[in-house]
Amino acid sequence: MPSTIHCSRAGVDRLNVDAANYPDSRRAPLTSGWAVIVSELLRWQWQQYPRYHQSRANLLLHIAFVPVFVLANVALVLALVQRSWLVALAALAAMAMSVAMQGRGHRQEAVPPEPFTGPVNAVARIFCEQWVTFPQFVLSGGWFRSLRDDT
């Protein structure tokens, strides 16, 4: 079933999507199967990730709170499977706190992140960043380089 997630013009340009075909030149829909959408979203995030993650405070908040989000996400799934509603609620609270703290870190950045275009876009971008893009950034050495290069 086709779905749409919107990316910023800058992200779309990096994805080689012809944004000129869309009336709103700042946002262009990426419509296709979910696998293609997620793949394009991950590519878009990765290509611009260092630009939005340069502040030492933001980098340190991310290294502390991305693991909190991931562990809380796993705890949420397990709690739902086991019908442990109190644990599920605590896991949701931990995930929300993690995202809030990372949001505070992004306020420290010289270049703010692209605004979310809606709830589906927000959830997709948050989950892709937490589970794939940030771990890739750390494992590739990008996190350390950005931390070292912070002036």
Structure commentary:
The chain has 151 residues and is mostly helical. It has six helices and two strands; from the N terminus they run βαβααααα. It has a two-stranded antiparallel sheet. The radius of gyration is 16 Å and the shape is globular. The relative contact order is 0.16.
Provide keyphrases for this structure.
single chain; disordered N terminus; mainly alpha; 151 residues; two-stranded antiparallel ribbon; globular
Short description:
By secondary structure, the chain is mainly alpha-helical. It has 6 helices and 2 strands, in the order E-H-E-H-H-H-H-H.
Question: Topology, pairings included?
Answer:
Layout: E1 3-8, H1 9-14, E2 27-32, H2 34-52, H3 56-81, H4 85-106, H5 119-139, H6 142-149
Antiparallel strand pairs: 1-2
Helix pairs in contact: 2-5, 3-4, 3-5
What share of residues are in beta strands?
5-15%
Mean pLDDT: 83
* Subunit organisation of the chains: single chain
How many distinct beta strands? 2
Distance between the termini: 47 Å
Number of contiguous helices: 6
Report the major sheet. Answer: 2 strands, antiparallel
Structural class: mainly alpha
Q: What is the percent of helical residues?
A: 55-70%
Give the helices and strands as they follow along the chain: EHEHHHHH
Spatial shape? globular
Show unreliable segments: 1-30
User: Rg to the nearest angstrom?
Assistant: 16 Å
Q: Order of strands across the biggest sheet?
A: 1-2
